[in-house]
Amino acid sequence: MPSFEETVNSLRHQSGEDKQPLPRVTLGAINRDGSFHYAKAFGEDSTDTPNTDAVHWIASCTKFLTTVAVMQHMLTHSSGMAYVFMHPLLARYQELQGERPLIQQTVKESYHPFLLFEPGERWLYSPSVDWAGVAVERVTSMKLGDYMKHHIFDIVSAKDVTFHLDQREDLRARKAKNWERVGQRLEEERSPVWPDPIAEDQGILTGKLLRPETIKLMFQPHLGSNSGLDKPDEYPLPVQNAIWNAVPHDVPVSFGLGGLVNTAAVPEQRGLHSLTWSGIPNCYWWIDINNGVAGIYLSQLVPMGDQKSVELLTEFEKFVYSSLN
């Protein structure tokens, strides 16, 4: 049986007509008591240093952080809103409006607050957590990043997290390269569309950030109707991968407060009622609260939901649990 590092290299450096190479990835996992800790970067020998402290844009992986900041329709993506790429009517509306950057300066400028269905009627990935972040700002009279720094990042000693990379020269120097998959090639992104997560995950595992009863609530299913998560094949493959990532489609799921929750254990992988989510540049995380395990997969590769990235994520997760067992 090949070692895990051999498996990583075989997935990253493929050959043949259907090759789908992968760029730099950083993998991390930890358990509740700290007896298991894995952190390793796999980079290009000629251009990347194999340090694990490279800076990554993690996009929607931050939705879990906002959930920690504010606690049901808004936090479970069942509010009635949706991202443009999740619904054909919104995509058509956007087309008629003309091209514009994916991410604007404010939430109000970035997302259309149209109601596509009655709140609670179904699940559909949406900017509702982004709007919940705006609510935190209004209530606290603080910028969301400042609120998170004081109430989340400082508590778990996560110093390398920011919403404003332009204000952190020390982090810009360590920024990982951005890549785009174009057919069978990887092309470096020169103009990306976007202007210590593992420490935060352990903060949930150890109970530093939230009360036990609050943590228990976050990892429970919260959808009255599972419509929108009961038929994975109704979404394009990249969207399926972004939502389900390493959770097989035959495993039932719902949505907790902050991420997808599997309502049955995944063989050789995460346990019952684990939380998971992803970010556009193929960043993924999971927290297995029952087994006390958390893991993260970081890359800077677009488009989202890359099939080879999810394959490597799945192999990494199996490696983590086999190591613990």
UniProtKB/TrEMBL annotation:
Entries under SUPFAM superfamilies matching the protein = beta-lactamase/transpeptidase-like
Positions of the region Disordered? 1-22
Gene Ontology molecular functions: hydrolase activity
Q: Which InterPro entries match?
A: Beta-lactam-related (IPR001466), Beta-lactam/transpept-like (IPR012338), Diverse_Enzym_Activities (IPR050789)
* Ranges annotated as biased composition (Polar residues): 1-13
Q: Which UniProt keywords apply?
A: Hydrolase
One Pfam family recorded for the sequence: Beta-lactamase
All residue ranges annotated as the Beta-lactamase-related domain in the record: 72-304
Per the similarity annotation, which family is this?
A: Belongs to the class-A beta-lactamase family.
| Protein name in the entry | Transesterase (LovD)
